[in-house]
Specification:
Elements lengths: L5 E2 L4 E4 L11 E4 L10 H10 L9 E8 L6 E8 L4 E2 L11 E10 L6 H11 L14 H10 L1 H6 L5 H5 L17 H7 L12 E10 L2 H7 L5 E8 L2 H21 L12 E2 L3 H36 L8 E6 L1 E10 L2 E10 L1 E3 L18 E4 L7 E5 L2 H6 L3 E3 L8 H7 L2 H10 L3 E3 L3 H6 L8 H10 L4 E13 L1
Parallel strand pairs: 3-4, 18-19
Antiparallel strand pairs: 1-2, 2-3, 4-5, 5-13, 6-10, 7-9, 7-11, 8-9, 8-19, 12-13, 14-17, 15-16, 16-19
């Protein structure tokens, strides 16, 4: 299979029609020569499989953080027409609206003399780890509002400001959420977890802005060199996972009912216009909204800690932006010169809308959307901006992170959590986690180099570098 790949540009590669039976369009991915050694054949096959699905538009796509996932590869993007296309949970993922937000502060590195004390207080305040419960009790009525109103619910309850909503993708809420398609089991899992970080690759990082690449965009986004920022990465917790599990079973039957041939059963799907497809889309919106409320509440807890330690108000700690990684959304894009409504699946990929598109935050019409790309515990994270190139090539999409090169079990065999914690400590990075194992699973060398991944999307023109941030303190989920 790998021998069939065709290089179409310095950073652009094609998986031609015919690589797997039934492909309707080519696959296309973005990668540098340096990263080609990380490309998994299984991920390429998954990309080709996406191209077999009904209604796929132009190309099945993958970003440079591509690696094997459930159904779609991580880093996968697929856009489907509304009349012939499908919706697939495998193109969204189990952690619906896993995403990342960046919070700015007026602090600088010199202000963080007590960084270990602050990190410990953040760790004690933000519930972290498998199965942890929120310190905030959510009643059934509140859960309904969380699933239909998203971050708006949290702000109205006092966990943020109106400005926060303007600097969230979709203002922190997808329309079309219908709670009747969410099971009691999902509700039970979600009720105690809103305002918790979770486990796995989720984290809260204290970072310092080390380098500015685009002063105009950085100013518009409220970022300057030397500034301390907080990055929060988490999703829809058990509620989103259960919604995905529940609807996968329904859509497996629906694929048979509608005679949709599947190259991989993990691509279970239904027509967008079918009752089964509409039910999943509305339940997925509930989970996406829950995730935005979750990150909003974690940001509120973070602000409380910083306020206690540095006498800062919420207005002095503005949200830079919040983006989602795992979601399917109805969007308009130019296809063969015509405005066309599509369902864009982004699975481990980030929206990167360019200048003069809709849903941009205030003052960013001429700049484009902020895009946040987290690194690993020991590598840089990046703030990018969306581009016209992304609108033309990738349905306004770019990478979502560095992308794994080692599984969690492989990473745990390489080094102990204690040794990684000590090594990072010598580099001036404080790491706190519920267990040494959770640190080992997320070792920096378990990921591709974030700088090279970002270089690819920048050079390919599907997003552009604005700033680079280095970690100072890390709380792992």
């Amino acid at each position: 299979m790998m021998e069939k790949i065709i290089q179409r540009g310095e950073y652009e590669w094609e998986v031609p029609i015919g690589t797997v039976p039934g492909m309707r369009v080519p696959g296309r991915f973005y990668l540098s020569q340096q990263l080609m050694g990380t490309l998994e054949e299984g991920a390429v096959e998954q990309l080709a499989n996406i191209a077999t699905l009904p209604g796929i538009c132009k190309n099945a796509l993958a970003m440079p953080d591509i690696h094997w996932g459930y159904g779609f590869p991580i880093g996968g993007v697929g856009a489907f027409t509304m009349d012939e296309g499908i919706i697939s949970p495998g193109g969204v993922g189990f952690d619906i609206n896993c995403g990342v937000r960046l919070l700015a502060t007026p602090l600088h590195r010199r202000d963080l003399g007590q960084i270990k004390k602050v990190m410990q207080e953040l760790y004690d305040t933000v519930p972290t780890g498998v199965g942890t419960k929120s310190c905030i009790t959510v009643a059934d009525r509140d859960l309904n509002k969380i699933m239909t109103e998203g971050a708006r619910w949290a702000v109205e309850e006092g966990y943020g400001t109106d400005r926060d909503l303007l600097w969230c993708e979709e203002q922190g809420c997808i329309e079309g959420a219908d709670i009747s398609h969410v099971s009691q089991k999902a509700r039970k899992r979600g009720r105690p977890q809103c305002g918790t970080l979770g486990s796995g690759n989720h984290f809260l990082e204290v970072q310092c802005v080390e380098e500015i690449f685009d002063p105009e965009a950085a100013q518009a986004f409220g970022i300057e060199a030397g500034q301390i920022c907080i990055m929060i990465h988490c999703g829809s917790r058990g509620l989103g996972h259960q919604i995905c599990t529940d609807h996968l079973k329904i859509l497996e039957d629906a694929a048979k009912k509608y005679h949709i041939p599947l190259a991989d059963k993990q691509l279970a799907c239904a027509p967008l216009t079918s009752p089964e497809g509409e039910a999943y889309l509305s339940a997925m919106a509930c989970a996406a909204n829950y995730a935005w409320a979750n990150r909003q509440m974690i940001m509120h807890l973070t602000r409380e800690v910083l306020s206690r330690n540095f006498s800062l108000s919420a207005e002095e700690m503005p949200l830079v932006y919040d983006v989602t990684h795992n979601v399917a959304k109805i969007e308009e894009h130019l296809v063969d010169g015509k405005r066309t409504t599509l369902c864009v699946h982004r699975k481990g990929a980030t929206r990167a809308f360019g200048p003069n598109t809709h849903d941009l935050p205030p003052g960013c019409d001429a700049i484009g959307q902020p895009v946040i790309i987290p690194g690993s515990m020991g590598s840089s994270s990046y703030l990018l901006k969306g581009t016209q190139g992304a609108m033309e090539k990738t349905f306004g999409s770019t990478c979502h992170g560095a992308g794994r090169v080692l599984s969690r079990s492989q990473a745990k065999k390489r080094a102990s959590g204690e040794s990684i914690q000590e090594s990072l400590g010598r580099s001036g990075i404080t790491v706190l986690a519920p267990s040494a194992g959770s640190i080992a699973e997320e070792a920096p060398d378990a990921y591709k180099p974030s700088g090279e991944v970002v270089k690819v999307v920048h050079e390919a023109g599907i997003s552009a570098k604005v700033a680079r941030l280095n970690p100072i303190g890390v709380i792992k989920g």
